[in-house]
C-alpha cells in the first residue's frame, strides 16, 4: 500500500488534532519543538510527520511498506523502509517516539517497546494510541466492534486497556506519565438506520466525558517516559 493522507476537507482537522497531541509531548519534555527529535514508527506515507515538521519538530519515520515509505520520502521526509529493529538506531537517539495504531497488530508489543526504550533519551516520551478493549464501545458492540476485527484496518491480534498498558510499560522499562481514553460510539458506519445512528450519536456524545473520567473511551492514548537514570 502507498499509505493514506488526509484529503483537503479533513486536513485542517488532522492538523489540529496532531498539534494538540504533539503539544502534550512538548509539555512533558518542557522543550520547544525545534529542539525535539521525533520518530514515528509505522509512519505510512508521512501525514503525521509532515504536520509535525510544519510545527518545527525534527522528524524521521520508519515504515515497512516499500510503497508508503517511498511516498513519504517523495515528500521530503527521512524514512527508513523496514521494521524498527532493522533500522539499528543508536542508543538514546530520540527525544520522542510515536506508535500510532501499531501495537494492536503485534504478537509481542513488549519487544517493540523495549527497542523504543533503548533509542529514547533519558526522560524521552513514547506516545502510543490503540483501541481500548475495556471501553463501553467494546462492551456494547461486542464482535461488531472494529477494534476486534482480524481483517479490517490491517487486522488486530492484540488488545489493550489502561491496566494492561501500564503492565506493558513496566515490562518494557518505561514509566507511565499519562493514560487517557476518549470517545464512545455504539455502531460502526452502515450497521444501523439513519434515525438510530443519530440517536446513538447523541447518546455517545453525552457519555464522552464520563468515559474519559473512568477510562472507558474506545480510543486509548498512553504517554510513557524513559526514566532519567
Overview of this protein structure:
By secondary structure, the protein is of the alpha/beta class. Helix 3 links the parallel strand 2 and strand 3 (79-81). The model has no long low-confidence stretch (mean pLDDT 89). The radius of gyration is 18 Å and the shape is globular. The protein starts with 7 loop residues before the first helix and ends with a strand. The protein has a seven-stranded mixed sheet with strand order 3-2-1-4-5-7-6, sandwiched between helices. It has helices at residues 8-29, 47-54, 66-74, 84-87, 109-119, 136-141, 162-171, 194-214, and strands at 37-41, 58-63, 79-81, 94-100, 120-131, 175-182, 219-225. Helices cover 40% and strands 21% of the residues.
Itemize the secondary structure elements and their pairings:
Blueprint: H1 8-29, E1 37-41, H2 47-54, E2 58-63, H3 66-74, E3 79-81, H4 84-87, E4 94-100, H5 109-119, E5 120-131, H6 136-141, H7 162-171, E6 175-182, H8 194-214, E7 219-225
Parallel strand pairs: 1-2, 1-4, 2-3, 4-5
Antiparallel strand pairs: 5-7, 6-7
Main features:
globular; seven-stranded mixed β-sheet; alpha/beta
